[in-house]
Amino acid sequence: MSSTSGRTPAPDTAPRPRPPGTPGRTPAIGRIALGYFALSAVALVAPVYTAVGNHIEPRVLGLPWSLVYVLGVVLANALVLATLYVGRWVDGRDGPEASEAVPEQPPQWGGRPS
Fold first, then answer.
1. Residues contacting residue 34 through CB under 8 Å, at least 6 positions apart
2. What are phi and psi of 25, to 5 degrees?
3. Cα(67)–Cα(55) distance, integer angstroms
4. How much is the pLDDT for 27?
5. How far apart are CA 71 and CA 41, in angstroms?
6. In the chain, how many H helices and how many E strands?
7. Residue 95 contacts residue 18 (beta carbons within 8 Å)
8. pTM reported for the whole predicted model
């Protein structure tokens, strides 16, 4: 039996160079976004939520504060995600080269059928 299983090697996953004028991925913004979403997740669990958001009073537009707090965090997350999407700051593979067709290869079988 040979040491190879007959599988084709994985395609090169190194990022391709971007054409001039195409916005690229900024690692600092990615780290800031990751930190923000980690903090927003912490804001929705104990002990932060129990200290800040777990109250009925005050009521905001007739809604209890606990619901307004959660809706506020979710709305803030949606706004940050929309900003990151529109600015294309986080998704590094969402450029013109992402739409290029990748040729499909037939599966390679590594042995005799059983």
1. none
2. -80, 135
3. 9
4. 72
5. 13
6. 3, 0
7. yes
8. 0.57
